[in-house]
């Protein structure tokens, strides 16, 4: 199976930091969990067919943290819905551990931006829901659920209901619920997008800790540059209309990540490179709003 994946490493930083180069060499030696080839999706619309995604080729390796970034409308959620099996692609193929994916399955865990816990179930019951649906019974279902709840730091809330939790806590339960099915890959669509900046930063750290400790691969969608650089091993940049892969960037920032790294040249260079791709300068000019001037001419405001 051939691939033309345009992987980019920022060479200056890669050479300066041998540990980073070594990390990517090892990453590519790990088995491929998710293989996407020639993936395309178009929708019927009143103006004809809209191509949301076209010719996507990429691999996600075992225990990799891959972020997908791109402008609004470039097809990020469409991609994740196809990967989750909720939507069928128009073309191409999708292999999970080498097997073709045709519909939803417990091998893929999902966490969305909107809060999706079952409001009538307690935290523990929400986490037990997937394993029970998969036919598991007996006390181990409950003890396993407790373990996942402990892992996201919410043991004191196992009997609480979603309405009693903050947004960040709800997303921690959503992560525990997704992991309780022991998925091969965790698919996350802007999971922290609705949280305030401080909670969001805290959630990013929780997620990195969880990822480090369990055997799971993560595909994480965001449109926040800092979030992508902070979390990812590699960042897949999508360009819009139709959604195609612009580049896959290896993030040359060492792990473990910390906020102090946000001033490192490697961090800033990665951010700048993505920013130039997803917010090209000429576009800012095109999108200038034509607002009629309503104030009295002659005031001093620029
Ligand atoms: N069910 C649908 N029917 C028709 N068009 C659709 C459908 N779902 C998505 N689209 C179109 O496909 C394109 C990609 O949408 P998608 O929701 O995947 O973008 P996105 O990158 O997730 O955007 P955002 O960052 O705003 O969440 C858009 O042009 C959208 O209008
Ligand atoms: Mg979206």
Summarize the structure.
The chain has 302 residues and is of the alpha/beta class. The chain contains ten helices and eleven strands.
Structure description:
Helices cover 36% and strands 24% of the residues. By secondary structure, the chain is an alpha/beta fold. The chain folds into two domains: 7-102 and 185-286, Rossmann fold (3-Layer(aba) Sandwich); 108-182, no CATH class. The chain has a seven-stranded mixed sheet, sandwiched between helices. Helix 8 packs across helix 9 (265-278). The longest helix has 17 residues, at 197-213. The radius of gyration is 21 Å and the shape is globular. The model has no long low-confidence stretch (mean pLDDT 90). Adenosine-5'-triphosphate binds at residues 43, 45, 50, 52, 70, 72-78, 223.
> What is the topology, as strand order, of the major beta sheet?
1-11-10-4-9-8-7
The CATH fourth-level homologous superfamily of the largest domain:
P-loop containing nucleotide triphosphate hydrolases
CATH topology of the largest domain: Rossmann fold
Write the CATH architecture name of the largest domain: 3-Layer(aba) Sandwich
**How far is the N terminus from the C terminus?**
57 Å
Question: SSE string, helix = H, strand = E?
Answer: EHHEEEHEEEHHHEHEHEEHH
CATH class of the largest domain: Alpha Beta
Output mean pLDDT.
Answer: 90
Strand content: 15-25%
- Biggest sheet, open or closed, and with what strands and sense? 7 strands, mixed
Bound molecules: adenosine-5'-triphosphate, magnesium ion
Shape: globular
Which class do the helix and strand fractions yield? alpha/beta
Q: Residue ranges: pLDDT <50 for 5 or more in a row?
A: none
How many individual domains? 2
The helix tally amounts to 10
Helical content class: 25-40%
Radius of gyration: 21 Å
For the secondary structure, the number of strands is 11
